[in-house]
């Protein structure tokens, strides 16, 4: 039986017209992965609905693995996250205008969840294809972390059996060239190669 792999990516936000996560998602070819059935989903950058969205996907698809992709502008490498924090403190508004400050995501939830994947193994898989990567302790307090926490809460409390990973991607070189001052970046082709390596390692 083929393993079901769900890969998610956020829509553009913060005034940018594209998102490296979404560009990578578009370029993932299901035929590149043996014995896997690949599901690709675009997610809204909206804290108020992200929990319902990811819980619905988990219920409908019942994936064996979830790989969530997000943008970390200013990064110089692919970042593999370890922990999701029960905290929302948005530096900027999300796409719906929501901007919580110092709030819990789940009032009765634990302070943090550890991802159900192996970040060290995933970082090593990316390094093998010669793309820089490292493990990070948490994904900040914006919608990326919000998604992580909601997904891991659903996996833990609703009995889903999915391995969950969150991957932060830097800007693409193509995107960085449009910004001033020019921020750190990696070529889109390198980001695609990194995510393909992560899917295969998963």
Protein architecture, described:
The protein has helices spanning 20-27, 47-61, 119-128, 143-158, 173-176, 188-201, and strands at residues 3-10, 36-43, 65-71, 78-85, 112-114, 133-138, 163-169. The chain has 202 residues and is an alpha/beta fold. It has one domain: Peptidase C15, pyroglutamyl peptidase I-like (Aminopeptidase, 3-Layer(aba) Sandwich). Strands 1, 2, 3, 4, 5, 6 and 7 form a 7-stranded mixed sheet that branches. α1 crosses α6 (188-201) and α3 crosses α6. The two termini are 16 Å apart. The model has no long low-confidence stretch (mean pLDDT 96).
Structural class: alpha/beta
Radius of gyration: 16 Å
The number of distinct structural domains comes to 1
The SSE string, one letter per element, is EHEHEEEHEHEHH
What is the multimeric organization of the chains shown? single chain
Let me know the number of strands. 7
Question: Mind summarizing the main beta sheet?
Answer: 7 strands, mixed
Label the overall shape: globular
CATH class: Alpha Beta
Distance between the termini: 16 Å
Estimated share of beta-strand residues: 15-25%
């Amino acid at each position: 039986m083929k393993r079901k792999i769900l890969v998610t990516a956020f829509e553009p936000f913060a005034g940018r017209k594209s998102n490296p996560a979404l560009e990578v998602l578009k370029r993932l070819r299901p035929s590149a992965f043996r014995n896997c059935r690949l599901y690709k989903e675009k997610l809204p950058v909206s804290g108020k609905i992200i929990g319902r969205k990811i819980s619905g996907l988990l219920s409908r698809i019942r994936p064996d693995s979830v790989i969530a992709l997000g943008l970390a502008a200013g990064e110089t490498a692919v970042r593999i996250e370890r922990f999701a924090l029960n905290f929302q403190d948005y530096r900027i508004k999300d796409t719906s205008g929501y901007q919580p400050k110092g709030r819990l995501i789940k009032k009765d939830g634990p302070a943090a969840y550890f991802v159900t994947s192996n970040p060290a193994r995933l970082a090593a898989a990316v390094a093998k294809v010669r793309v820089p990567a490292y493990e990070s302790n948490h994904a900040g307090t914006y919608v990326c972390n919000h998604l992580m926490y909601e997904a891991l809460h659903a996996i833990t409390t609703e009995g889903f059996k999915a391995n969950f990973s969150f991957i932060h991607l830097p800007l693409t070189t193509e995107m960085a060239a449009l910004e001033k001052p020019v921020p750190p970046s990696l070529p889109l082709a390198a980001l695609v190669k990194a995510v393909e390596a992560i899917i295969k390692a998963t």
